[in-house]
Design brief:
The complex is a heterodimer of chains A (225) and B (668).
Chain A (H helix, E strand, L loop, with lengths): L3 E5 L3 H13 L3 E5 L2 H11 L3 E5 L7 H11 L4 E5 L4 H9 L4 E4 L4 H12 L9 E4 L2 E4 L4 E4 L2 E3 L3 H12 L5 E2 H9 L8 H14 L9 E4 L3 E4 L3
Parallel strand pairs in A: 1-2, 1-3, 3-4, 4-5
Antiparallel strand pairs in A: 6-7, 7-8, 8-9, 10-12, 11-12
Chain B lengths: L1 H45 L1 H54 L10 H12 L8 E6 L9 E3 L13 H14 L7 E9 L2 E14 L3 E8 L1 H51 L14 H57 L6 H31 L8 E4 H8 L1 H10 L3 E4 L6 E4 L1 H17 L6 E7 L3 E8 L8 H4 L21 H11 L3 E7 L3 E9 L21 H18 L2 H6 L4 H7 L4 H18 L10 H15 L8 H9 L2 H8 L1
Helix pairs in contact in B: 2-5, 5-6, 6-7, 7-12, 8-10, 9-10, 10-12, 16-17, 16-18, 17-18
The chains are: A alpha/beta (225), B alpha+beta (668).
Chain lengths: 225, 668
């Protein structure tokens, strides 16, 4: 497993502590404590995952998140002290894949990091179709009407999970488990925000989705009807 | 025969129909007019202008009609006095003429008749005041020769000249001889001319000469006509004046009421949130002062609100900052503690135990911090509701995990009674889960090692969960105190599961944020009930709860017998009978739980089997209660294996739990 992790956090003690834990689990951590320098370090180190504190001196964590997302689909896990809806949703909407609320346990952190880095190593060649969207599972590519769409790995996983069983309704909890790797019911806002981000990329009209459809009171499903 | 009977039947039916219709058409206007009356009364109560105008109308009508009546009395009296004056002067003139002729002073002779005739002729009305005249000898009246001209008084038809008048005239003549004659008068009705109907008028009789009398009759027609026309003009003028006054009142009140109405509307809009609304200030009178005061109030309100908003903003920011500032070092400490705790086997005994203690207390510290921040968020009004439609039954079962583990350690059960259909409501999942976790943990913790019963209910407007324990219960007054911050039933009691003392306070705030209720019931020794009621829609209002708060059965004889039977059933060796009797479902609740169709029951058995078969990959605590196994299994299945859609979620779970009522009732 590749394991370069960029820790963007201004708290030196916490960063060092995270470094100890990450090294202990076999990851290679690099650190940056300043929002303004975060992008440079990111480009230099090309990490496999970013652990990002939302409150940073210089450029704020949300902006760092947006900039990274503009350049790359690398998994971003936010570290946040704020579990309020607004803060969390803002972070997720700016492109974070997952978030951990401080204070967290080291094993929770490691589990989330592993879940984000876990990729099926050699997926069987498989092509899925919903509406005019075609998914090449092995090739990690998605096309709509022949045009390639740029999805992050998480968005890709979410779409594949839905598309493998078209017309089946998935509850948010099931999606959390399948896509995010949560064992216990967690924050379903993760699902809501990422479904919206996914729709913005694959739907013709995200206001009236045809590919990822909401089933009121239950969850989501792929395909019309 | 048959045809005739049918015809009779038909006509009878027609009659009935007609009667119904008649009855309807009779009642319809009554209802309509009543409704109209109510509407008028409503309008009257709500409109100051209408009240002022109607009061003006009524008062001015009373005043004007009073004045009119007095005026009329005066006028009529004057008219009649005037007429009498004129009549008397005409009669006096006639008397003078009669006396000056001297022809009737002597004895009656053959020419008397002729003289009377000519006298009557000379005295008849010549235009001007109309009257009739008679000349008659005294004292005999009836049957005597009467000499009249023109519109003669019909002496020969009734009524004749009233006897009273004749007597007066005769008496006058007897006393004074043929000297000093003066007219006698009386108001009476007499037939006049060709008109057989008697008309009212003034009759004047004057004795003269040697036993003769001159009679004048002045009909009142002219005076009456004058009176009638005056009356009519007065009436018209009165009505016009009354309505003019009402119109003036309407106009004047309008000047006052319109600005007041605008101020009221402005205040309404202001309270609805239009803080930028201002009233137009015109002139410098009292109404302008009202508008100015209103505008000042709006400005003051706006400023105060802005101030409060700023304050709230500051506090929110402070809470957020504190949260961040405390949480970052706590994270470091916690991870460090994790590392130390993980390697405690390599340490000395004292260091290892210290690591353990630190680990445990850090958790407590963290939950205390979390609860404090949550409470301060509520205090700063910074809590927001993140509601979405979800199945409350599912949440109830999911929230039971921690309490389930505690119950298991204590060797007790949590029994679930959920309705067959999913209880969808728009709720904030995170908050409701937190409430339920808290209630369940409390119930198990204070349940004195007895079972806990969780019931879910719903109706069209609300969903409810009640958590029943059979522990020490609550003393009276404690139903409110339990929701106080850091309140403890018995300060000396040792805590077993380490709550923060803020759990129920936060749960109450969470329920209130939903517009819902969280209530407690308890009796010493009877255990306690916590009931959460939430509206099904975010903006919905609660008028009642689908579940009863007090678990004590209604004290009807039937219930008592049922309870006693079940209790004895329990005592006769089925086990758990004591708690069974207390956990007896309410009569209304039993309907929800016990399946009515055998088909559903058999289906549910099948589903249960298939579920148990699938259960193995999901880690589940080994549970004694079949109800719970089904519920949790179905839930874990829905959440865990990703085949939620294959088993219709709510249906499968609830079908599985349906026999619960039966089993509980039968076996405990």
């Amino acid at each position: 497993m590749k394991g370069r992790v960029l820790v963007v956090d201004d708290d030196a003690a916490l960063a060092e502590m995270l470094g100890i834990v990450l090294r202990g689990e076999g990851f290679e951590p690099t650190f940056v404590g300043d929002g303004d320098r975060a992008m440079d370090v990111f480009r230099d180190t090309k990490p496999d995952l970013v652990l990002l504190d939302l409150m940073l001196p210089g450029m704020d964590g949300i902006d760092v998140c947006r900039q990274i997302r503009a350049e790359s689909g690398v998994p971003i896990v936010m570290l946040t002290a704020k579990s309020d809806t607004v803060d969390v949703v803002l972070g997720l909407e700016s492109g974070a894949d997952d978030y951990i609320v401080k204070p967290f346990q080291s094993k929770v952190l490691i589990a989330r990091v592993r879940a984000r880095l876990r990729r099926t190593d050699d997926p069987a060649p498989e092509t899925l179709t919903i509406g005019d969207v075609t998914i090449d599972v092995a090739g990690h590519s998605v096309q709509r009407a022949g045009e390639p769409l740029n999805l992050t790995p998480l968005e890709f996983d979410l779409l594949v999970a839905l598309a493998r069983k078209p017309r089946q309704v998935f509850t948010r909890e099931v999606l959390l488990e399948q896509v995010w790797g949560y064992r216990h019911a967690a924050d379903t806002r993760l699902v809501n925000v990422h479904v919206q981000r996914l729709r913005a990329k694959i739907e013709k009209d995200p206001e009236r989705p045809e590919i990822v459809v909401t089933v009121r009171g239950v969850g989501y499903k792929a395909g019309p009807g | 025969m048959k045809g005739a009977a049918a015809a009779v039947g038909a006509s009878y039916r027609n009659l009935l129909a007609w009667q119904r219709q008649a009855a309807l058409s009779r009642t319809a206007p009554v209802i309509r007019s009543r409704r109209w009356l109510r509407r008028v009364a409503e309008r009257y109560r709500h409109s100051l202008q209408l009240r002022v105008v109607s009061a003006t109308l009524i008062l001015s009508a009373v005043v004007v009609s009073g004045l009119g009546y007095i005026l009329m009395q005066h006028l009529v009296a004057g008219i009649y006095a005037n007429m009498q004056q004129t009549s008397l002067s005409i009669a006096n003139t006639g008397l003078n003429t009669a006396q000056s002729s001297n022809a009737l002073n002597g004895k009656r002779n053959s020419s008397t008749r002729k003289v009377i005739w000519s006298l009557a002729h000379s005295l008849q009305s010549t235009g001007g005041t109309p009257y009739a005249i008679e000349v008659a000898p005294l004292p005999r009246v009836q049957g005597a020769p009467v000499y009249s001209t023109g519109d003669a008084i019909d002496f020969y038809r009734t009524p004749t000249i009233p006897a009273a008048l004749t007597n007066d005239v005769v008496a006058e003549w007897n006393i004074k001889g043929n000297a000093a004659e003066r007219p006698w008068r009386e108001w009476t009705s007499m037939a006049m001319g060709s008109n057989p109907r008697p008309v009212p008028g003034l009759l004047i009789g004057v004795p003269f000469g040697s036993g003769f009398a001159l009679y004048y009759f002045f009909p009142l027609a002219a005076a009456e006509q004058t009176v009638a026309s005056i009356q009519q003009s007065l009436l018209v003028a009165g009505i016009v004046v009354v309505f003019l006054l009402a119109a003036i009142a309407w106009l004047v009140t309008r000047w006052v009421v319109v600005p007041v109405r605008m101020a009221a509307q402005g205040a309404r809009r202001l309270s609805a949130g239009e803080l930028n609304l201002r009233m137009e200030v015109r002139g410098s009178d009292e109404l302008a002062a009202l508008a100015t005061a209103f505008n000042d109030m709006a400005v003051g309100l706006q400023e105060k609100l802005a101030e409060l908003e700023d304050l709230s903003q500051v506090q929110r920011q402070f809470v957020s900052d504190v949260s961040h500032e405390l949480r970052t070092p706590l994270t470091t400490i916690k991870i460090a503690s994790d590392v130390l705790y993980g390697s405690r086997e390599e340490m000395g005994q004292a260091a290892a135990r210290s690591a353990e203690l630190m680990q445990g207390q850090l958790e407590r510290f963290e939950s205390l911090l979390t609860d404090l921040l949550e409470i301060s968020r509520y205090d700063a009004n910074a809590a927001t509701l993140d509601a979405e439609p979800v199945d409350l039954c599912g949440i109830v079962l999911q929230s039971a995990d921690v309490a389930q583990q505690l119950a298991e350690r204590r060797g007790t059960k949590i029994e679930f009674r959920v309705p067959a259909e999913p209880c969808i409501a728009e709720i904030d999942r995170r908050r409701v889960e937190r409430i339920l976790r808290n209630l369940l943990l409390n119930a198990v913790e204070h349940g004195e090692d007895k079972d806990t019963v969780v019931t879910v209910g719903m109706d069209s407007a609300a969903v409810a969960v009640s958590v029943r324990d059979f522990g020490v219960g609550l003393r009276s007054g404690e139903e409110q105190l339990v929701f106080d911050r850091f309140w403890r039933a018995d300060p000396a009691r040792a805590r077993t599961s380490g709550g923060t003392g803020l759990g129920l306070a936060i749960a109450l705030e969470d329920a209130r944020l939903h517009g819902g209720w969280l209530e407690a019931w308890g009796e010493p020794g009877q255990g306690s009930v916590f009931r959460l009621t939430l509206p099904r829609a975010v903006s919905g209002e609660l008028h009642g709860s689908p579940l009863p708060l007090s678990p004590l059965p209604l004290s009807t004889a039937e219930d008592a017998i049922e309870t006693a039977e079940l209790a004895s059933l329990g005592d006769s060796g089925l086990g758990g009978g004591g708690s069974l009797a207390r956990g007896l479902p309410q009569p209304g609740m039993t309907d929800r739980v016990v399946p009515t169709e055998p088909l559903v029951a058999s289906e549910s058995v099948q589903t249960r089997e298939s579920m148990v078969a699938r259960e193995s990959p999901v880690t589940l605590p080994a549970l004694a209660d079949p109800v719970l196994v089904e519920s949790v299994a179905a839930d874990a299945l829905a959440a865990g294996s990703g085949v939620a859609g294959e088993v219709p979620d709510g249906r499968a779970r609830h079908a599985g739990s349906q026999p619960a009522g039966n089993e509980v009732a039968a076996s405990g």
